[in-house]
Design brief:
The complex is a heterodimer. By secondary structure, chain A is of the alpha+beta class. In chain A, α2 packs antiparallel against α3, α6 runs antiparallel to α7 and α10 runs antiparallel to α11. By secondary structure, chain B is an alpha/beta fold. The chains are: A alpha+beta, B alpha/beta. Chains A and B meet through loops of A and α9 of B. Chain B: This is Glutamyl-tRNA(Gln) amidotransferase subunit A. Chain B: It is an enzyme of class 6 (ligase). Chain B: Keywords: ATP-binding, Ligase, Nucleotide-binding, Protein biosynthesis. Chain B: Its EC number is 6.3.5.7.
């Protein structure tokens, strides 16, 4: 469990290159109110309808820390197994921009609320890699500048201004675009489990700045470039792949990498440097004199720690202890909702293995095909649990179970009632089954002879009986009867 | 009663309480005086309609027996305090037409205590100045003139509108604010009384910020008692200001006459500065004698880092102001340059046109001291020195209860005299800035006049949140000084 996993090198003309990736992820804190004002934070509201005097930086307005946002940051820090700093400081990051009303962003510079921690990522092939967390700090978001509404005016929407963000900075511990993507998925899962960020990249509640460099394996880090403001997992992968290839080409043709800030062009799939004006900032950080240092007690941290939900890693271990294999367990814990769905089935009395198999083999496939998430799917955990239970109780066969699922999917309803009213119940009346068995044997004397020579032929008889009974006969009973009739050993 | 405006705030309160005078009569008296005194330029905005409406409401409450501690008492508000629906300019062109939709906590506290608003008082632009000459609305002229002279003098700054209004009887009292001496310097040079309370005593919410870690609201009024009444009404902890402090506000007036017997008065040797006017040194010595005569114990103390206070102040205050004033960018409110060609042009011209020279100078200084490569040498170092200055006081207060010093190095100077030389202007704050750096309370009381008949003030510095002792000592000085001088009302023609 280390970063010294098998290197995935990119081949250049001079041999293999290792990609080094570090991320700065901005997670919007799940909170009804902004970091330093009481204004609301809902996404999609009318422009400038969620702006307080503080957010608009009216004269004489002062920030007041929202304790809930602090709690969310602490909770996230604990989820990242990180050092929680009982004393941290808010600083002003000064720069002018139209959507930054105060002319400074309140952030944490030298003394963040959360220090070092770690996130484990599961690599394909079963290896687990550790990505170090450098820090997490709280800061305000800026507003939004809108440039495409008018030929020579820009508009500013301050709804977002002042919303609390957690900036999570990793160590340069990722070694491929895939690992960066796995890390982001894992981080997203963690904050969603914690309820500290909704992880919605499309709405911008999770965005990342991606630091990329390349090096020959075993050599020191090279100069990195930072790709700003990425909000799609797919584009992050593309950007890292493009940028690492670009850097390799530069280095192999004898050039050097200049440390710079880049933007990823989603149309061309290329990175390009930001205009120098966009990055030539001296932020003149200094402690915000309107705010006291942020201080709290360890006992408060302990309280939050005690209320932490089970996180993906622990859940995965627990699921595996119930008999699931690593793959199934990973699939089930990857999304909080999936795990919750699975656990609801367990709570309904289904054993873990059956539930996992059923979900992975049947239900998730149908969801994927329909493009639905587990919360959007039409079949409840309770209904799925009932279907599996009926198989276990020999009320229906596995085959009928799939049919029942299709019916519930299409029409809804209670699975047990469906089985009852549509006559899907397995036939356990041995008399009826015997009749069917005898009929099949009588109709196929040649096959009876063949079966005596080749006992595997019994399966054919079973199939015929099942067919004749519309799949409702208990396959075990059918099998036993046929063997008895044909004089085959059990 | 002959001239109601000659009453002190406490006298007016008592006259109203005993129904000798109504708030309306009192208010009308001040509104008339304000009209006659417009040449002094104390008010940027007069609010007669609001004043009379508030006065009438007060008279109703008084009639109903529901009077509050400042019921019906007309006061002026420094134009740094945001007042809901009333233009608030910070004496700057950049927000010359700004009308806040909210009320500062301190002014709200005054209204909740029954006070009546006469209008908004001028000050130095964004409170940056010591003479009230940097206001975009022109300098405020002191009601005082040197004997035999018609030369216009400064009323001190930055709260020059406040000191002028109180000295010229254009308000019973006035709110002011003090970042490096902006309450105390004006009080000292106009024969008025002013207190800068402990940092955190009054909320800063709704007061246009200059330097957040130094700014503190306080009153200027005629007497120590008046200030005690006003501060009690203004002070409060405020959930909207994280730096306000939740320590009960005592009834300052009740403890006023306690005397100074046994009180240890510290005299800091570092405040004997070369260049201090002889009459200032003389009044300081007199002050020592007065307190001694009333039973105080005089103690020599040392505040060794005093000499670093001004340079420290002129790093920290501009640094904070450079950031605090970034919001005045022409984007959301305030002055916006015509036809900007792009965002940078919009910023440069809006701010260049909107801010006056002194404000621009301080923004530049502040931006410089916070810049990469200079931060450690200037800002960080200044913060360390600031801690040493605060420690000086902690050490001194092991030996004394209150410190007595001069308030200004010289009496009022003429308008225009120091404008061209900012350093000389900054030196005028030499006795006051240390107090802001240490966050302590400090009271200035009038102590006498010089040969030219111009008022001289003395400064008392107290322990944190011990304004009560400060008022008590100030009252003792007031009793001994018997300051009776008043400016002649030459502006009445």
């Amino acid at each position: 469990m280390s970063t010294e996993r098998a290197a995935k090198l990119i081949q250049g003309t001079t041999g293999g290159w290792e990609v080094v990736v570090g991320l700065e992820v901005h997670c919007q804190v799940l909170s009804n109110a902004k970091l330093f004002s009481g204004a609301a934070t809902a996404f999609g509201a009318d422009p400038n309808s969620q702006v307080s005097f503080v957010d608009a930086a009216m004269p004489g307005m002062l920030p007041v820390i929202n304790k809930f946002c602090v709690e969310q940051a602490v909770r996230t820090g604990l989820g990242l197994k990180a050092q929680i700093n009982l004393r941290s400081v808010f600083d002003r990051k000064n720069y002018f921009y139209a959507d930054l009303p105060a002319g400074y962003q309140i952030s944490q510079y030298k003394n963040p609320i959360v220090g070092e921690g770690e996130v484990l990522i599961d690599l394909p092939g079963g290896e687990v890699a550790r990505v170090g967390i450098e820090r997490l700090h709280l800061e305000q978001d800026a507003g939004k500048s809108i440039h495409d509404q008018h030929p020579d005016h820009s508009f500013v929407d301050l709804n977002r201004a002042g919303i609390a963000l957690m900036e999570i900075v990793t160590k340069p511990d990722m070694r491929s675009a895939e690992e960066a993507s796995l890390f982001l998925r894992k981080l997203r899962a963690i904050v969603r489990y914690l309820g500290t960020c909704d992880g919605n990249m499309e709405e911008g509640s999770m965005r990342a700045d991606v630091n990329v460099s390349v090096r020959k394996p075993g050599t020191p880090f090279n100069t990195r470039c930072e790709i700003k403001n990425m909000n799609s997992m797919r584009f992050i992968v593309q950007a890292i792949e493009y940028e690492s290839r670009r850097q390799i080409d530069v280095l192999e043709s004898g050039g050097t990498i200049a440390q710079q800030t880049l933007l990823f062009d989603t149309k061309t799939g290329e990175t390009r440097p930001m205009r120098s004006k966009e990055e030539a900032h001296d932020y003149r950080y200094f402690p915000d004199p309107d705010l006291l240092p942020l201080e709290f007690e360890q006992s408060w941290v302990d309280e939050i720690a005690a209320s932490l939900p089970e996180l993906p890693d622990a859940k995965k271990d627990r699921f595996m202890a119930m008999g699931l294999n690593a793959y199934d367990a990973l699939v089930l814990v990857a999304e909080k909702e999936t795990a919750e769905y699975f656990e609801a089935m367990l709570a309904a009395g289904v054993d873990a293995k059956s539930a996992a198999n059923w979900l992975n083999n049947e239900y998730f496939g149908r969801l994927n095909k329909a493009g639905l998430s587990v919360t959007e799917g039409p079949v409840s955990a309770a209904a799925n649990a009932e279907i599996i239970k009926m198989v276990g109780e020999n009320i229906i066969s596995g085959k009928i179970a799939k049919d029942v699922l299709d019916i519930v999917w299409a029409e809804g309803g209670d699975p047990r009632a469906i089985v009852e009213t549509r006559g899907l119940k397995q036939v356990t009346d041995t008399g009826a089954i015997e009749k069917a068995v005898d009929a099949v044997i009588a109709a196929n004397p040649d096959k009876v002879e063949a079966a005596k020579l080749k006992p595997a032929m019994a399966g054919w008889f079973v199939g015929q009986v099942m067919k004749a009974t519309g799949g409702k006969a208990n396959p075990g009973t059918v099998n036993a009867l046929i063997k008895a009739r044909l004089g085959l050993p059990d | 009663m002959s001239d109601l405006t000659e009453l002190t705030l406490a006298e007016a309160r008592d006259a109203i309480a005993s129904k000798k005078v109504s708030s309306r009569e009192l208010t009308q008296g001040f509104l008339k005086a304000m009209e006659e005194a417009r040449v002094l330029n104390a008010y940027i905005t007069e609010t007669p309609e609001i004043a009379l409406a508030m006065a009438d409401a007060s008279d109703k409450r008084i009639a109903a027996g529901e009077a509050r501690p400042m019921e019906g008492l007309p006061v002026g508000i420094k134009d740094l305090y945001c007042t809901k629906g009333v233009k608030t300019t910070a004496a700057s062109k950049i927000i010359a037409d700004y009308v806040p939709q909210y009320e500062s906590t301190v002014s709200q506290n005054l209204w909740d205590n029954g006070a009546v608003m006469l209008g908004k008082l001028s000050c130095d632009e964004f409170a940056m100045g010591s003479s009230n000459e940097t206001s975009a609305f022109g300098p405020v002229i002191s009601p005082w003139r040197a004997k035999g002279s018609t030369a216009q003098l400064v009323p001190g700054g930055s709260s020059g509108g406040s000191s002028c209004a109180v000295a010229a009887r254009l308000a019973l009292g006035a709110t002011a604010s003090d970042t490096g001496g902006s309450i105390r310097t004006p009080a000292a040079v106009t024969g008025t009384t002013g207190i800068k309370p402990t940092y955190g005593r009054c909320s800063r919410y709704g007061i246009v910020a200059f330097a957040s870690s130094l700014d503190q609201a306080g009153p200027i009024s005629s007497t120590v008692r008046d200030c005690a009444i006003m501060l009690k009404a203004m002070a409060s902890v405020d959930p909207k200001d994280s730096t306000s402090v939740d320590i009960p506000v005592p009834d300052y007036e009740a403890g006023l006459e306690g005397g100074v017997k046994g009180l240890r008065i510290g005299i800091p040797k570092e405040y004997r500065l070369e260049g201090t006017a002889p009459e200032i040194t003389a009044i300081w010595e007199k002050g020592v004698e007065w307190l001694k005569a009333q039973g105080a114990e005089i103690v020599d103390i040392s505040l060794p880092h005093t000499k670093y206070a001004l340079p420290t102040y002129y790093i920290i205050a501009p640094a904070e102001c450079s950031s605090n004033l970034a919001r005045y960018d022409g984007v959301r409110y305030g002055h916006r340059a015509a036809d900007p060609k792009d965002l940078i042009d919009l910023y440069e011209r809006s701010r260049g046109e909107g801010f006056g020279a002194e404000v621009r100078r301080r923004i530049l200084i502040g931006t410089y001291v916070l810049s990469a490569g200079y931060y450690d040498a200037y800002y960080l170092r200044a913060q360390k020195v600031r801690a040493l200055i605060a420690r000086d006081f902690t050490e001194a207060y092991k030996k004394c209860d209150v410190i007595l010093t001069p308030a200004t190095p010289a009496p009022a100077f003429a308008i225009g005299e120091k404008v061209a030389d900012p350093i000389t202007m900054y030196l005028y704050d030499v006795f006051t800035v240390t107090v802001n750096l240490a966050g302590l309370p400090s009271l200035v009381v009038p102590a006498g006049v010089n040969d030219a008949g111009l008022p001289l003030g003395l400064q008392l510095i107290g322990k944190a949140f011990d304004e009560a002792t400060l008022f008590r000592a100030g009252r003792a000085l007031e009793i001994a000084a018997e300051f009776k001088a008043k400016p002649e009302k030459w502006w009445r023609g």
